[in-house]
From TrEMBL:
It comes from Penicillium bovifimosum. InterPro entries: ARM-like (IPR011989), ARM-type_fold (IPR016024), Mo25 (IPR013878). Belongs to the Mo25 family. GO terms for biological process: intracellular signal transduction. This is Conidiophore development protein hymA. One of its GO terms (molecular function) is protein serine/threonine kinase activator activity. GO terms for cellular component: cytoplasm. PANTHER family: CALCIUM-BINDING PROTEIN 39-RELATED, PROTEIN MO25. Coiled coil: none annotated.
Amino acid sequence: MAFFFNRGRSRQPAEVVRSTKDLLLRIHDSQNAPKAKEELAKQLSHMKVMVQGTQEVGALPDQVHALVQATLQEDLLYDLSQSIHLLPFEARKDTQTIFSHILRFRPVGYPSDKEPPVISYLVHNRSEVIVELCRGYMQSQSAMPCGVILREALKSDVIAAIVLYDQSSEGEPTIRLSEVKHLLPQKGDGVFWRFFDWIDKSNFEISADAFTTFREILTRHKAIVCSYLQTNFELFFGRFNNILIQSDSYVTKRQSIKLLGEILLDRANYTVMMRYVDSGENLKLCMKLLRDDRKMVQYEGFHVFKVFVANPHKSVAVQRILINNRDRLLRFLPKFLEDRTEDDQFTDEKSFLVRQIEILPKEPVDHTRATRDSSSANTAAMA
């Protein structure tokens, strides 16, 4: 009975949101912070119950709708994204839950084929929230809860567009969805480019979570990422190769090589793959991975190396490197990771690569020139 009595006296969603916002302002004041944090933790716990309900009683759709509207009206998501690193541990977890529920909330009757209303609101009106969540990787306390919230938001292509194309500095307005210019090359100083350093230079927990979000962006949103990589090819792969593939961290290095293979072998990225495997410098980097001291780095490197060798239209630069190293490769590959005796696919791929290297011409062939000559000959014959 007490439960129902308390529910009757519960405060309205708008009141809870305003109280939470006021407390968020107070935790930045060192003198009042301890008491404010204690009160704020209670408010966030209460708000979590409002959005997700309890084991006994589910959330009330009308109450959740009112809470979402009040949250947007008071700009609470922005305040939470800026202050989450200051919250106590349990309050950070509650904030993560609140955020995630609000991001995917759909009112009764809302079309299932449209973006959730809060997602749409953020990308058109308050994309600073998304960028602040990314900057959560700057603080160890906020990295993982912000990462979880980001990955919930990144289920939508429009959120990925904001992360990829925003180039604002801290304190500046961030990009809106209507301002995204897919064909405009970037300078490399936006929030997306900071993931390289967050992955490479942070402690293990932050690095691992940042890499998970980074991979989510690059592998989930195929159409937008393919366009993005084509427009920013040199800048992106320059940093990917130099920072991630050559990282001093074994975990970062191995994961990044594996991610590179995923990107290149994704059918949606065919144009990107062909451009990457045209580069002799990229091939040299890949061949260096085959000689790494760690077997899993060698193994992941092999799956990128095979793309260069299997390409039937190898560039002159790639052909020249393979031809110059033909004898060494033919001695090296049969013994490469020969203890993987139960991996039949790997064994077959090695045999295929050996055969491709054996049949390389003595001198490089310019396939682009051959194609042009053939086209000219056909045109002349038709004339």
